[in-house]
Amino acid sequence: MIAPEQYPVLIVTVPLLSAFLINLIGMVDKRLCYPASLLALGASLAAALAVAARVAATGTIHYHVGNWPPPFGIEYVIDHLNALVLVVVAGVALVAAIASKRSVEQDFPDKRAQFYTLFVLLTTGLLGMTITGDAFNLYVLMEISALTNYSLIAMGGNRALVGGFNYIIIGTIGACFYLLGVGHLYIMTGSLNMADLLQLLPALFHTKAVLVGAILMLLGAWIKMAFFPLHGWLPNAYTYAPSATSTLVAPLMTKVSVYIMIRVLFSVFGAYYVFTVLPVKGLVVWLAVAAIVGGSIFALAQQDFKRMLTYLIVAEVGYMVGGVWLANQWGITGAILHIVNDAVMTLCLFLFCGIVVHKTRGHRLENLRGLFRRMPVTMAAFAVGALSMIGVPPTAGFFSKWYLILGGIDAHQWGFVAALLFSSLVNAVLFFRVFEIAYFEPAEEVHGHGAAVAIDEAPLSMLLPLVAVAIGLIVLGLYSTSLVSTFIQYAVPAGI
Amino acid sequence: MIWQFDFIILALALICAVASISLKDLLSAAIVFGAYSFVMCLLWTEMGAVDVAFTEAAVGAGVSTVFFLAAVLHTSRQVKPRRHGRFFYKFIGAAAALAIGGVLLAASADFPTWGDPASPASIHVSPHYIINTIPDTAVPNVVTSVLADYRGFDTMFETSVIFVAGLAVLAILGRFGRRTRDEAPAEFAAVPVAGQSPIIQAACRIMVPFMQLFALYVLAHGHHSPGGGFQGGVILAASFILIAISYDLRAMIGRLRERWNMVFASLGVMIYAGTGALCLLLGANFLDYSVLHRILPATSPIMARSHGMLAVEVGVCFTVMAVMVLIYVNIASHGKSDKGL
Amino acid sequence: MAMAEIFAKYNYWIYITLMMIGLYAMIAKGNLAKKIIGMSIFQTAIIVFYVSIGAKKGGATIPIIAHGHEGAEHVVRAIDYVNPLPHVLMLTAIVVGVATLGVALAIAMSIYERYGSMEEEEILERIRE
Amino acid sequence: METVVSIKPLLASLVSLAAVVPIVLSGKRPNLREAWTFGAGLVKLALVASMLPVVLAGNQIEYTLWQFLPGVAIAFRVDAMGLLFALVSSTLWIATSAYSIGYMRGLDEHSQTRYFAFFAVALSSTIGVAFAANLFTLYIFYELLSLATYPLVTHHQDEEARRSGRKYLTFILGTSIGLVLPAMLIVYSLTGTLDFNQPGLLAGAPSKAVVVVLLLMLVLGFAKAGIMPMHAWLPAAMVAPTPVSALLHAVAVVKVGVFSIFRVLTGVFGVHLLRSLDLGNLVAVLASVTILTASLIALSQDGLKRRLAFSTIGQLSYIVLGAALLTPKGMTGGLLHIAMHAFGKITLFFCAGAIFVATGRKNISEMVGIGRRMPVTMTAFLIGAMSVIGIPPTGGFISKWYLVLGTLEAHQIPLLVVLLSSSLLNAAYFMPVFYRAFFCTPEESQFEAGVVAEAPIWCVVPLVFSACCSVALFFYPQPFLHLAELAVQHILGG
Fold this sequence. Notes:
The complex is a heterotetramer of chains A (496), B (341), C (129) and D (494). Chain B has helices at residues 3-22, 26-46, 50-74, 87-108, 120-123, 126-137, 142-150, 152-173, 186-190, 198-220, 229-246, 249-255, 258-281, 301-333. In chain B, α11 crosses α12 (249-255). The radius of gyration of chain B is 23 Å and the shape is globular. Chain B is built from 14 helices and no strands. The longest helix of chain C has 31 residues, at 85-115. Chain C has helices at residues 3-8, 10-28, 32-54, 85-115, 120-128. Chain C has 5 helices and no strands. Chain C has a single domain (9-62, 75-128), classed as Helix Hairpins (Orthogonal Bundle). The interface between B and C is large, with 104 and 89 residues.
């Protein structure tokens, strides 16, 4: 019925259309919103998988929306890089949606329709940002995902409101910087299409306007991904967000922003400009080092489990940005692989966090007491995620770290290598501290010894996704080679 | 373009901007900010951006200001004097502003001269639209054809942004669960009709139908003159907001229920995305309206594009109208829909 | 610098100034409403920038193609009309602006309802309590 | 030499990992659960033993499971050195399993299912290390072992266990992430492969400085080997239940450490490189310092397990010393010591555990006269101690003999002095235990006279078995001696 050539646009439009339907359905019966969202996200994932398979088989796909040829119309370009990211985004969103059922029922039973509509729209925004080949279209979708994100966070009430407000202010600055950067390129070239810009820009590489455009777009992406020292908004916004929200945005928001940075750098400016003309190469790597070290140290200082995780996100962003600016094959491969791995790892941790919040009504470290006895399966799955964050083989986290460190050695960026190792060690300390609390300290309600703690596992709708993701982490680790050879190696710009 | 005129407008804009952020009285600040938006409209009209100016007049100077006023009335009207000045933030703010300003200034040295007809932006992509809009789409207003067709995909998401805003305001402010199936809770019925001036009420009652008629004209005539879905939708919304302001919220909700509002908002975007999907089902690319000639009687592919654009503009109008009213209602009633402004 | 050159780019300078005002307000102001006003100014500054890109001197008019009379062939020249593309982009930006404004106001009002203040310091104090 | 491709090494490693599932599922029925443990142990031993003829015939078995990058794979290679280690650990696993039943049930410990499950995981990793064909595989299994042993070490879940567990992980995980991982990546970056080969990966290394740095990173990074100053975790980890200490801290964990060092010295650096840069001495000095210091500290320990722990630290460095001698006899001695020390030390730990189960005593000062109460156990203890000291007729004598020959071969008289004085110290810290146990007047005895009360049979049988093995190995040191010789031949002849 619908030709395979149309699949790229389905990835985005199916969830978009479904979102409005979900909103209408919710007026009839709130209970239908959940299955409808799963259906929509599942369809999107299926389309993304089909497109990824086609990209792997035949190479880059171009899709002209409205049948207008670029640069006059808007074009979707799916190459090896975003085919992969699309699958990750759609997959993570689906898993997060599956797990959201009980949290949503607990947190805002009356706003389920609004929640799921915004949830699906946020995913749409992220998918659209990933798939597009047009610099301005990217901005519009960035705003969709941002606005949905603000409101999903603010739905948490109380402190989430304050976090959400700060996020709006800073997020708007970020988006505006990006838009301004696009404006600088537009005034100099007259085009908004990325491929067209890549053709037109080399003649203008010497101008300050292009330089400023690049810096503004980078700053915009960095604010959106919470790259040190622009990370101030993230911990508050994510810590106090409702669990169902943070499960979706924590794994995806920063990762998609990193993708956008990579996309803008290599598909608009080109590797030559980024690594040879831009005078910031060393600086960025050192900023990444600061992000990794700073994020890790702040994470150490937290007494709140979820907040600790948010600082880890800040550190992980440093991994990816640093990896890209190592400017070699290993580093960029590692950064892209880490987008995938970190999305899944963060998903695992936040799924766990969602379970903790659901079960204990809190996310401080003391809420974790005695969980090894109470929820052995949940804890086992969490342990896999934690080990992946530490970078223990054969979990996924180890392999991207492997590439990144190799890249650091190759580029003689010893500070970056040291920061990666430092962060692994800090993660080990952090997570074993968590394990200790969950393993050694009895839950509060149990007094005295010998009182057997009844096993009280998480509801299946939360447990199954978590276990699946934990297994996925190991599978992803074992298949990281094929991921690199099928997708990532083509995504690394040639000639570096 | 008369540069003296430009200068006056720009100077006014600067004054309004500085005033609106430095006034201690938030109500005044909001009103000055409305004036700022209006000055902006003048500036853009003067630069030939009539559609932008139109939208800004309706959105920026119109509903935004009303939103602001409503919000300020519900919160605190005064900026409180501080015990300790925010020196740190002031310093950061000033440093960031100066740094960005300096960088931008440096970049502007490389820009082509303002208004240069030979600048890259004027000769690369945009001439294509100007020259081909009539042969491609039979729509003389290039802004409309680019908005709804060449870059119609952007606009679809832009409409979604509006929808998101409405939904978000509802999700954040809305009180659910307390209300029964209908919007009218017990206390709602108890609120007496606010005693506004009868002159204003009478005037508004006369104005509203004309406003709505004008809105429809703006929507329908967007192909040929400045205007279109956005502007039409905002004017429609303004007519409802006017009722709310001159009478009270209850009077307006009586005419446009919140539930229907949400349906309209969803429906609008669905019309847009649905038109795109229809093209897809007919075997063309998403939003390739030309394929609609197969189902529209006696229509060439070119005219089909024109009709397709009209369809999506209607969708845009629905959503914008519904969402603007929704936002206003929720802000003005603090989510309770039971009080007037 | 010659007078003509100064005037050649004054639009860009104004947008930069507006932008700086907006950015400063967003960071330095402690009142949430003021931050929101700053945000709106910041966004309009960008609109000024884009619209300025689209301007054409030398007789260009608004981008609505003049109809030829009664089927008379009419040659459309790009130079006669200002650049419509930035206008389209900025319609989007205005809409995004009002959407952001709505959400920001909604959040600010919820904050006021919860913490009883629109001042950042006071809110933080009340959170600490 | 021929290379045979076979999946056996993978199966040998995975069989105990696979057993985890039935172990956990049959957690409610202890007898069935233990049957699974034994079943897996026997299958593992059979698999390992079945590879013996191939290796003794001078061949290798290889199996590549999964290629990650060129030169980086999860791959197994069974050679003489690996097989020697695998044979020791799979044999002793069965003994320890039997002993665990006696010990854990005797003390009515909690969470036994978890205990047996992680025990099985630990064994899988040990065999994985033994058969690792490259540094990458070795590292993976090394890390897996660290994590699998953490719940075992902290089994009691009390404050002391928590502290010790923290120390354990800090040292083990900290060094592996902080030192081994970067060293491995640097090696890969320099050579483009991580495969152990002859004459060593780094044969054409760029500079001595790089080699020295890498050497220190790797030797100290494998903290399980307990080379000072990376030894502090070992005494702390004695908080674990005794069978854990027995298998893991006398056999699996620590031996994995020294085995890794042995592999790295021969397979990554290569004997020729170390000889030509004269770096053997550097390692030898580290080992010697550890041997003497640890033996001296052991003298002053009253806790029996702590004394054994420090003895272990010293004995481990014998093996490292053997490797560092870089001579045929020395290396043979080192490899043999892996086996000989394992049988001797496990006997000692079994005895310590048996005493604890039977009497609840942990300190040597409380064991006056215990020989009359537990004669079998204490006789086994004597045999184990003799083996560790190196007195015939026990296996320990043979390995020490070769080590001494090795020092002479290398003309390293100071090292000879170290070995001999250490043996004296060993005697000095073990003999008092024995002396107090048997040679005391009835008044001095802390136990009721005339009562013989041994630990449960499940405890006694394994310790008698391992003590007998220690003696038997003196008279019949095959196949370990043969394997060690083959391995050395391969290392030096390559």
